[in-house]
Specification:
globular, mainly beta, 8-stranded antiparallel beta barrel
Length: 176
């Protein structure tokens, strides 16, 4: 785990060092998340969880229409049951394709590290795919919508449950 974090930090520093056209910013969002169980557990009400996300990002232009945007964010996700509320420190790396001056679409991977009890039957590390759209309100302010789909089971191997985390996020941010 330490090697992964070190590698990601090195990647961010390398991108920072070679970028000529960089933007930085802050972003906050509203989450609507849930868990997709396979198979559905009986006698269990799987209710979605409303939460929030807040983070910092860098956006580095690779060409006129392509940018890479690594981010560090805190995100409250999971389901509404007390035992499966998940709070993560996340690192999405979004590849943005600009569609004119106002719109951009993005896709990429997202690594998540659980920020609470580490001996609770839930995995401490998760991996997701993320996609979204961004609309620039002005030169600095933007609105965005993201959807992340978990690629790893959130439960430890000792449990006999399988579930992945899904999350919709509506965000507002500032680029400077």
């Amino acid at each position: 785990m330490k090697k992964t974090v070190l590698l990601l930090a090195f990647l961010l520093c390398t991108i920072y060092g070679f970028s000529q056209n960089a933007l930085y910013g802050v972003r906050a969002g509203y989450n609507i998340s849930n868990l997709d169980f396979e198979p559905d557990p009986t006698g269990f009400a799987n209710k979605h969880r409303n939460g929030f996300a807040i983070g910092f990002f860098g956006e580095y232009s690779l060409s006129d229409n392509l940018a890479i945007a690594p981010e560090i964010q805190f995100s409250s996700e999971g389901a509404n049951d007390e035992g499966i509320k998940l709070d993560y420190l996340q690192m999405p790396i979004v590849f943005k394709f600009k569609l004119g001056d106002k719109f951009a679409i993005g896709v990429g991977p997202q690594a998540s590290l659980k920020t609470h009890d580490y001996q609770d039957g839930l995995k401490n590390f998760a991996f997701s795919g993320i996609g979204g759209i961004e609309y620039m309100l002005s030169d600095e302010f933007f609105l965005d919508f993201r959807y992340s789909y978990g690629l790893t089971n959130i439960f430890d191997d000792e449990t006999e449950l399988d579930a992945i985390n899904t999350n919709m996020q509506i965000g507002f941010g500032l680029k400077f």
